[in-house]
Design brief:
The structure is a homodimer of 500-residue chains. In chain A, helix 2 packs across helix 13 (356-365), helix 7 (217-227) packs across helix 10 and helix 8 (233-247) packs across helix 12 (322-337). The first copy, chain A, is α/β, with parallel strands linked by helices and 500 residues long. Chain A has helices at 2-15, 27-36, 96-102, 104-113, 147-164, 180-191, 217-227, 233-247, 251-260, 270-289, 306-311, 322-337, 356-365, 389-400, 408-413, 470-496; strands at 49-56, 67-75, 86-90, 116-120, 173-178, 198-202, 296-297, 301-302, 424-429, 447-452. In chain A, the strands form 2 sheets. An 8-stranded mixed beta sheet of chain A has the order 1-2-4-3-5-6-9-10, with helices on both faces. A two-stranded antiparallel ribbon of chain A has the order 7-8. Chain A is globular, with a radius of gyration of 23 Å. In chain A, 55% of the residues are buried. Chain A is 41% helix and 11% strand. The first copy, chain A, has a domain at 49-209 and 414-496: Alpha/Beta hydrolase fold, catalytic domain (Rossmann fold), CATH 3.40.50.1820.
């Protein structure tokens, strides 16, 4: 039995892109985190003030009574006080200044709505560390890193702002967030409807949990993006894994691969090949997430519609040799990693930073944010891997000393039974793999889905661009229309209420 | 400064009826707990099965991964499966068998609704002790005693029942609770609307928190109950405190008082007098809570409309002497403590049991359930006492090593801003002091208040009685009508939903 367990653990290690091997990070965790860590600059400079708010470390227990400084950024340049609305970004797993600088949508609509902007940092990320440098030291210090605590932070912060900022007392607040931040904004409206009048949850996979959507949908969307971006593009990538296995089976092949991909550290053994394939898989996923219609500077600078550019190198027919195929894959990878030509070599362990963002999201994935993923190599272009919860759990236990609870997110946030809530917009991009776990059809007249067929990961939250497709322009217009309706209704309710 | 702090602490000690002096329990805590501990027998015998469910000790953190056995009682005698409704009692601060045996309303309507009954015990009470006999040993073990954890217990339990009981998968669940259990049922619907389709919150003072209602309203209602139950009844009690002070100022007076009240332990000093007055104050409050229209056996057996009986002994004019007045008070107290004539003496420390129920509610009052109370001696019949949060906090810290958070309940449960929720009935009795913190007018078409002018504390949840006033009969009928509507709508929604 022990052997079997080990085998299963190993299998999951592949699926999870080796969560416990720090040199390659868990793919599904990675995705979110990457987003938090995008170091590109926003188009116009933004101006805000930075504040710190004393938050309870534990909202749900009274033994730990300490506080920490939660960072938040505030811009009131266009705020029409008293009573002007507040757009509140529910920060996700990264430095809040990144989200602030890169959520152009909020900056672009502040003036027309007369809105104050607030960007609140998520605990355990950026500067908002409950125990300072010790925050990640062990599972005891990590114990307060949960979405529930983060939502409570947001609620307490907003109630404090409304109580302390002159003119804010009756300001309707709207939650805005993307990706995990979008999940938070939706959940925030569900759990604290007395605090926010509505929420925009952009590219928020609130259903990417156990039993809610098929575990293979995520990678199917990635595959579809490549399939439609060039002749045989997905088929070539599907073939590439075996080609890598074939070529890497000899020492000379390993050397050839290392040189062809201009790897900083040459491949030496099976483990390196595993890492190498995980790194490539992650590259294709990232490309799917950031397949934007204009040149942008993300983790790497990229051309417009980057998958189309990548696919130019992957348009092979069935007769292609392993070496020819992998030359194409190499060229394709370099579009992502060396578009500007300034990278002397490619680093397959580059995702293995010690960034708090990464580690924090790992922990969250290992506790509440259990998102089953799988591939079959048929409906997607990846090597087949089943979802193995037990092995995943064992890896989490080895890494953090905690075990994930597969059903908790559904139990606490309602899963698919959310129809009694109101005033949430779920926007999703048709190109975005995370749409797999998103709300992509209307649930009620006030739980609305907006699809952006040509959009990748929360395109609608980005600055507008001349190359934006009409679908994202329409989405933004609809979102602002809903904001106005929520604000109007909130003001009406307030004015009608008796004073007390 | 130290003297001043001591003074303030002493002042609060009076208000709180000496939370830190275990010989007299905190009044406002006491009230709830008493309810949990009512050892009277229900009219018809009830039949249920007892089960235990493995609950996570901590739903909101992953370091503590242990489980405990949560007790719940189940009766499916009248359940129409598949899909028949489930009436779910959200247990409060006491042994669940007490609530089960004494919530006759649920037993009486089970057949007509074809409903299963479930009574879930609140963690840290009855047999549902997260750490067994150590559960109350210190603040570390008490750390998981919160309403949020209790609500999560209920949600997880229901989802498990629906997943495991054949025929229950699509059963609509309705939460029912009284007093603190009513607060839980309302909050349960607010926070877990995907789990319960509606809630009956009977005598649930969800607004008895800081800044929501005047702190003196509670004791005003107690006073009104006495004022309308006999000539000068409230005035006599208002005078009695000074009379006690006067009489007890001499050794012979102390002795007289002890004999007149047939006290088991004679009064000896100022501290005893303080305890004595607290005990009397609590007696009047308890009478107001249980001022039912029929003879009932509560903490003590009582006649119908007990305050009217009590007031017969308190109908004095202004010329009454201190001794005459206190003779009346003594007779009045004996209605409450010795109606059957079987008590050889009265015990002013009788509330100082080591019952877990008491201690648990003390802890909850010292953390989340901070309910400011005050008296002014003018609009109420008690000695004037201001609410002093700091002193209260200091006492909590001395007792449990934790400090209360005055604003948390409002922040997490919405305070008065609950209009976006739905399907909650708030029923309140006009005689019940806890109506002071209740929802006593409609908030929306589906957040409905039902007033029972002649009702004391959650009369509607009790077995029906020939002497029930029409108002409580009408209330119960309205409640059942709403239950039927919620059930009907839930079934419709379920049938209309696509299968997945």
């Amino acid at each position: 039995m022990r052997t079997q367990v080990s085998d299963r653990a190993a299998a999951t290690c592949i699926l999870m892109l080796c969560l416990v091997c720090l040199h390659v990070t868990a793919l599904k965790s990675q995705l979110f985190t990457r987003l938090g860590a995008l170091p590109y600059s926003p188009e116009p400079p933004v101006s805000y003030k930075t504040f710190y708010f004393d938050q309870k470390i534990d909202h749900f227990g009274f033994l730990e009574d300490g506080t920490f400084k939660q960072r938040y950024l505030l811009s009131d340049k266009y705020w029409q006080q008293p009573g002007g609305p507040i757009l509140f970004y529910t920060g996700n797993e990264g430095d809040i200044t990144w989200f602030c600088n890169n959520t152009g949508f909020m900056w672009e609509i502040a003036e027309e709505l007369g809105a104050m902007l607030v960007f609140a940092e998520h605990r355990y990320y950026g500067e908002s560390l409950p125990f300072g440098p010790d925050s990640y030291s062990d599972s005891k210090h990590l114990n307060y890193l949960t979405s529930e605590q983060a939502l409570a932070d947001f609620a307490v912060l907003i109630q404090n702002l409304k109580g302390s900022l002159p003119g804010a007392q009756h300001s309707p607040v709207i939650a805005v967030g993307g990706s995990y931040g979008g999940m938070l904004s939706a959940w925030f409206r569900m759990k604290y409807p007395h605090v926010v009048v509505g929420a925009l949850a952009s590219s928020a996979p609130i259903w990417q949990f156990t039993g809610m959507v098929p575990c293979g949908d995520f990678y199917k969307i990635v595959t579809q993006d490549f399939a439609k971006s060039g002749h045989n593009c997905d088929a070539s990538i599907r073939k590439s894994w075996k080609a890598i296995n074939n070529v890497s089976s000899t020492v000379s092949g390993l050397q050839w691969l290392s040189e062809e991909f201009s790897l900083c550290a040459p491949l030496k053994n099976k483990n390196d090949i595993f890492t190498f394939k995980s790194w490539l898989q992650e590259t294709w996923v990232n490309l799917a997430m950031v397949d934007y219609p204009y040149e942008a500077n993300f983790l790497q600078p990229l051309p417009r519609w980057p998958i189309q550019v990548v696919c130019k190198y992957l348009s092979f027919d069935s007769a292609v040799s392993d070496y020819q195929l992998l030359q194409g894959v190499s060229q394709a990878a370099k579009v992502y990693y060396n578009y500007t030509g300034s990278s002397p070599c490619l680093n397959t362990s580059q995702t293995a930073t010690s960034s708090l963002g990464y580690l924090g999201w790992f922990y969250q994935a290992c506790t509440e944010m259990v998102m089953p993923m799988c591939t079959d190599g048929v409906q997607d272009m990846f090597e087949p891997e089943e979802w193995n919860f037990q092995a995943f759990s064992d890896e989490c236990y080895a890494m953090f000393g905690v075990r994930p609870r597969a059903d908790w997110a559904g139990a606490v946030y309602g899963g698919k039974e959310i129809s009694s809530h109101s005033n949430i917009i779920f926007s999703n991009g048709g190109l975005d793999p995370w749409a797999s776990g998103g709300v992509t059809s209307n649930i009620s007249h006030s739980l609305v889905s907006i699809m952006i067929p040509d959009g990748a990961h929360h395109l609608d939250l980005r600055y507008s661009n001349d190359l934006d497709p009409p679908s994202v322009r329409a989405a933004r217009a609809l979102e602002v229309k809903s904001f106005r309706e929520w604000i109007k209704k909130a003001k009406k309710t307030h004015c009608a209420a008796p004073t007390h």
